[in-house]
Amino acid sequence: MIMLLLMLHLLVPSSSEVVFMKEPVDSEVLAGKTTKRFDCILKASSLSVTVNWIHTDQNEREREYPFDEITKTKETYKIVGKTSEGDFSLIISNATETDAGVFQCKVRQEDGFVAYSTKGTLTVLFPPADGYPQCSSSKLQNGKTELNCIVDSKASKVNMNWTKRGESKSLGQDAQVRELSTTITLNDNDNGVVFRCSISGESVDSDMFCNITPMSLPPSVSFQTGLTETSVAIGGSVTLKCDSIGKPYISTLRWFYGDRPIERTSGRFR
Questions:
Q1: pLDDT for the residue 8
Q2: CB-based contacts of 228: which residues, under 8 Å, 6+ apart?
């Protein structure tokens, strides 16, 4: 008889039971925007439950928000689920730094049984301030050049990368930071060339970048082979040579006859 009673007790479920069907998970939100749902969907053995939300801020200060306070007085906190179906999910609008931290759902049944959901961490992202990112460069003692890119200290970390004009390959490794430096070796062909720092990420609404020209020397040209006086018989041909070097690299040379430019194939000129 005693053994039978014990077996019956094990087979009968406890009268106090809460099962969370969906629970809070970590999420991010841009400052001033609305969060994704912090889920709190449950099934309880009792039809009468009290559901509160617990918020622990970044300074480890904990506050418990009763359901009535959220629905009646807390303007930026809102229960969005159908409570009659056990959905007490929460969203936060116009998120600020004070909303960052850990959220947890607390359920109390009428018999006093209390259950807690898992915890979800809210990270509030702050976009870079106007005027950022900012680019700078400096000469190093080893002859190399350091490129530096920063966002303001209040901004969230962003993805940063440096590229050279006309090239898509990053200089160095991309990183999620507030400041990124990369060291390069400049040559004569880099004179006047623009280098760009681009930033992206959840806190950046659109493409943001800054440009810098670390080598900006005045252009220089020297002729290795100049024109000299020559003569040719009427009806004959003559070859004139012009050879030059320049910084930055000379990509185009043009011949002139008097003040008139000579096209590559123009009448008697070839």
A1: 24
A2: none
